[in-house]
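EI: anyone free to look at a 105-residue chain?
SC: sure, send it
EI:
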Amino acid sequence: MNEFVQRDISVTTETEVSPEQRMPAWDTDHTPVDLDDSAGIDPAELGDDDLMREMQSLHRTRLDTLRHAADSALATHLRRTAELETEYLTRHPGREVDPDRLRGD
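SC: here you go
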């Protein structure tokens, strides 16, 4: 049986919180979890094609990372996904929304 040791992560409600801040970090792989460690090129420096390619790659590997990766790798994956998606939304604030994907109230 796996035992999870949950660490407290300070979350402020004054600003937008990233997914890795909402997800507690567990120490199951005995690897130090450093949520401030950056991985990859700054999304603001990527061209549009590279940004899309990076996001597609992360989404393609999402389920395997969630189910099988070490906690530190999952935290990195979550952080990188948030960085890339935030950059995408910054570049495309008026993104096209498919009306078929909207729920009727």
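EI: The chain has a mean pLDDT of 76.
SC: 👍
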